[in-house]
Amino acid sequence: MDVQGAVQAILGRVTDKEQFIELYNIPVYDNYKQFLISVAQSRGKIKQKGIADLEAAGKIVLMDWMSGKIRYAIKPPSYQPSMDLE
Predict the structure, then answer these.
(1) Which phi and psi angles does 56 have, rounded to 5°?
(2) Which residue among 31, 51, 69, 86 is least crowded, i.e. fewest CB within 10 A of its CB?
């Protein structure tokens, strides 16, 4: 399973970055890799020599996604009234 790809897709779908920052107690991030490194550090998922375990961090995010801890919401499409209704 491509855990990092799945996390990247979740980050692309969820429009509210603040919920990730609050949920995982991490600083602002620019990309999915930086996000996973921050999650790994926050949750203590560090390999030998201080390397962040991105696979374990990704699994944490996927479990939170499946359990509903991560709220999924997108902005509704803008309403364009049709002029041809008569």
Answers:
(1) -65, -40
(2) 86
**Domain residue ranges in the chain:** 3-67
The pLDDT score that the predictor gives to residue 74 is 63
List, in order, residues 6 or more apart from 4 with CB less than 8 Å away: 32, 33, 36, 54, 55, 58
> Which residue is it, tokens 């990309």?
31
**Mean per-residue pLDDT over the chain, rounded:** 87
Residue closest to 53 by CA, chosen among 64, 39, 67: 39
**What is the mean predicted confidence (pLDDT) over 46-60?**
95
Q: Is the dihedral of CA 29, 27, 49, 8 positive or negative?
A: negative
Structure tokens at 55: 């696979």
